[in-house]
Amino acid sequence: xxxxxxxxxxxxxxxxxxxxxxxxxxxxxxxxxxxxxxxxxxxxxxxxxxxxxxxxxxxxxxxxxxxxxxxxxxxxxxxxxxxxxxxxxxxxxxxxxxxxxxxxxxxxxxxxxxxxxxxxxxxxxxxxxxxxxxxxxxxxxxxxxxxxxxxxxxxxxxxxxxxxxxxxxxxxxxxxxxxxxxxxxxxxxxxxxxxxxxxxxxxxxxxxxxxxxxxxxxxxxxxxxxxxxxxxxxxxxxxxxxxxxxxxxxxxxxxxxxxxxxxxxxxxxxxxxxxxxxxxxxxxxxxxxxxxxxxxxxxxxxxxxxxxxxxxxxxxxxxxxxxxxxxxxxxxxxxxxxxxxxxxxxxxxxxxxxxxxxxxxxxxxxxxxxxxxxxxxxxxxxxxxxxxxxxxxxxxxxxxxxxxxxxxxxxxxxxxxxxxxxxxxxxxxxxxxxxxxxxxxxxxxxxxxxxxxxxxxxxxxxxxxxxxxxxxxxxxxxxxxxxxxxxxxxxxxxxxxxxxxxxxxxxxxxxxxxxxxxxxxxxxxxxxxxxxxxxxxxxxxxxxxxxxxxxxxxxxxxxxxxxxxxxxxxxxxxxxxxxxxxxxxxxxxxxxxxxxxxxxxxxxxxxxxxxxxxxxxxxxxxxxxxxxxxxxxxxxxxxxxxxxxxxxxxxxxxxxxxxxxxxxxxxxxxxxxxxxxxxxxxxxxxxxxxxxxxxxxxxxxxxxxxxxxxxxxxxxxxxxxxxxxxxxxxxxxxxxx
Amino acid sequence: xxxxxxxxxxxxxxxxxxxxxxxxxxxxxxxxxxxxxxxxxxxxxxxxxxxxxxxxxxxxxxxxxxxxxxxxxxxxxxxxxxxxxxxxxxxxxxxxxxxxxxxxxxxxxx
Amino acid sequence: xxxxxxxxxxxxxxxxxxxxxxxxxxxxxxxxxxxxxxxxxxxxxxxxxxxxxxxxxxxxxxxxxxxxxxxxxxxxxxxxxxxxxxxxxxxxxxxxxxxxxxxxxxxxxxxxxxxxxxxxxxx
Lengths: 737, 110, 123
What we know:
The complex is a heterotrimer of chains A (737), B (110) and C (123).
Chain A: H1 6-36, H2 40-59, H3 63-80, H4 88-109, H5 116-133, H6 144-157, E1 162-163, E2 175-181, H7 193-203, E3 205-212, E4 230-236, H8 241-246, E5 256-261, H9 266-275, H10 280-289, H11 295-308, H12 317-323, H13 335-350, H14 357-384, H15 387-410, E6 412-414, H16 415-419, H17 422-433, E7 437-442, E8 447-449, H18 450-471, H19 475-480, E9 487-496, E10 499-506, H20 513-522, H21 534-539, H22 562-571, E11 575-581, E12 585-593, E13 598-606, E14 609-614, E15 618-623, E16 633-636, E17 639-645, H23 646-649, E18 661-667, E19 670-676, E20 678-686, H24 692-695, E21 700-705, E22 711-715, H25 717-736
Parallel strand pairs in A: 1-5, 7-9, 17-19
Antiparallel strand pairs in A: 2-4, 2-5, 3-4, 6-8, 9-10, 10-12, 11-12, 13-14, 13-20, 15-18, 16-17, 18-19, 21-22
Helix pairs in contact in A: 1-2, 1-4, 2-3, 3-4, 3-5, 4-5, 9-11, 14-15, 17-18, 18-22
Chain B: E1 4-10, E2 13-22, H1 24-40, E3 43-54, H2 56-72, E4 75-79, H3 83-91, H4 95-98
Parallel strand pairs in B: 2-3, 3-4
Antiparallel strand pairs in B: 1-2
Helix pairs in contact in B: 1-2
Chain C: E1 4-8, H1 12-25, E2 28-32, H2 35-44, E3 50-54, H3 62-70, E4 80-85, H4 89-98, E5 102-106, H5 110-120
Parallel strand pairs in C: 1-2, 1-3, 3-4, 4-5
Helix pairs in contact in C: 1-5, 2-3, 3-4
């Protein structure tokens, strides 16, 4: 890509991020309008997105983006002004254009080449944009050259900037004569003649200068805020004429600017002198003073004037200026003020700071350590029996918890950010499938960890596509059973007991219990005599290699099956369950923890070691029953509860078996009692990645460091429960046969 | 920041001390002030040591005041020029118009 | 003392690039993301010598911003550079009527912006 200094590279990064946000906004607005009809506010938002991208791309010299967005902007401008309609075809075109810009930016970021595919898409879209715009020739963005053409054009037609053509007898020197009469409103317009003079010095040398104060009224009469200044300047520069004229671009409409080569043809000076308000002789002397004319040249000029023109009456400066006086538009205040206050508060909320994700991770990591240290601190303070110390340690602990909450909140994003990609996915998928499907999204305001959101996006995408493909029936079939032809996919998010629940639901046919069972049987996943609950059968679709689609379609069923979805969800300590009612639809419910880095841990003792059970799994703690019924079971409120002796699982030899406890844990719908040597209480726990040593130990998810510095393994409850059921099922099997 | 105007009569001579920005924001008030003093005094010295900025509007007032003083036979002089004042006067080649001695200090340009 | 320029634009990258160019030339630069923010930044800053404002912004656009600004005695004569595109002739006129007499046409190179600012104030 380009070679940039670090500052510009950082700015370019900002541009990429900002452009992606803008493209997303553009897409959302377009999709909304496709559904609900066009509205000016959203058309404006789309226009502004394209406009901002174009403007910033220009700063980085990304000409392709500028060129492309320029065409896009033209079409949007016409739509905005009502010349063109926002037809469905145009929406599709605009969406593709957004994708194309995104694709270009992605390629830029990854330094991928602009290949044939990209270029043909580029041409196709430009042609479509052209067609949508109509055959009218489009102006290209104005470059510096075009700018000047425009400038000279207006000049010829109307402006007070007169440029006198120099003829071939021009002196070859790079000396110029500049004649300036600033407009009366120059100061009011925020312009200072002195600044222009200083700028001139930056592009050349002022070789001579006379300040003209002829127009300055007497002190009692003058308006101190009006400008009465004029200058005659001898100027030497390597800059070309256009560049010098460009200096006065901002005042060209209100002021009189003459630029001619020094010592150029006398006639040109004469013409200028005649056009200026001061007395000809006086002005002539000034020109000599600044070195633009020799006195000999002046004499010749004045002689020439007497011969040719006797009626050289000039319009006084004052008259010209009064004509050009700007009218200040009164500002409507009052009514706007209240509206403004509201906007101000909104604006305050919108002030965001971009932070590097890795910096944030580091902060959260440190806070995690702080939580542990604070827990240890409080522990030791408790041992000292010094009330004041314990009190202060408790206070520190409370503050640390607040810091932790605050730090974690920094990583949180609104679920609507996660959902925002889906309208487009549903729209495009529905088109490919030839189905009419709308998307509903609920749960805005629910927040989740950003890294979790990233990991959950693909599984969600898969579930949505799957529901559209397999869940929603074709329109005829829907109508037959009395459903509306349009299907509905809904995304819900909500907080639920320390975690987040995200649901993908559809109003389709529901899962076909028999079909799944048949398929599982074919694949050898189950045996014919197994008695399975609905839940257990539905769970089979998450088995590797399971696919019930009659034919493999382009949308789902590409081998990347539901098993991958489940793995992805479990990798973020989440779980998925399915609810389905035949003929009414299905719900895929994903339970996720709030964050990936800190959990509330429930500390238990196995023999002499401390283990951690994630508190979210813990339902209750009981004393180990003195009287045992069936081996491996205990009675809990008249229900049998399977027991799992953790000491046995991890090969611990417990010394004192007299005061054991049972921790009731739950995963999904399964519940189990874990037998432990003792309960140590709950504590905030920072999850640390496991060392290689633990990786192969089943039943351990990760580890944490305790306040006293010991490492404590964190138990992987879902795996432990599954293993237990698998083992007991097997033994039950062998027992029966 | 704006322009601060202080006046002091010293041995029949009015000393007007300007401090701050001699610019468009100060122009109207300064014109009013100069208009009055030029009519009332025979000798006026404008001290410019603490002028941090001068723009065209500020310069224009000084020119108008000088013109008015000449017309009324009042002696008006600029003194103690700050760097900003010298720069502006030299840029516009107005130093000779006022004709007051300019004390060049080290940081001032030629 | 360096002159202060306020850059009001909803594009963070534009503000960043303009900031780099102007700071490199010796100006102080403060940024605002829209008109409302711009007014807040002006209220919180001792003196701003020049204002660069986009036209098309959410919340409060550049036209309204300049109109409001020009009502304030302390910014009545402060130069304003309006950022427009060539497609926005109408907006440019509105901006000029509101008091933004200088303009730079988007897209522009950082050097063009620096030149425009330098014409109006030196650092």
